[in-house]
Amino acid sequence: MELEKLCSIIAEVLGIDAGEIEESTAFVEDLGANSLDIFQIIMRAEEEFDIELDIESADRIASVGQAAKEIKKAIG
Question: Which listed site, 34, 43, 68, 74, has its alpha carbon 20 to 30 Å from 2?
Fold first, then answer.
């Protein structure tokens, strides 16, 4: 469920089809996201899931799967 919501957020921020996004998709290499895009995705995810990711965790997020894992961990 978190993954589906996250893919929806990513698609909205990057203006792409959510069907193009998989758990193994890398933000920079596969989607062409820059640091501002990733920041916006993280901010929207924090709002959507009512969580707060620590900066160190957020800096290590390179793929959709890693982001989903950090969100799950923050949810508890």
Answer: 34
Phi-psi bin for 15: left (phi > 0), alpha (psi -120 to 50), beta? left
Query: Is-above-0.85 flag for pTM?
Result: yes
Q: What is the pLDDT of residues 17-36, one digit of tens each?
A: 999 999 999 999 999 999 89
Say if residues 27 and 11 touch (Cβ distance below 8 Å): no
Structural domains for the chain:
2-75 (1.10.1200.10)
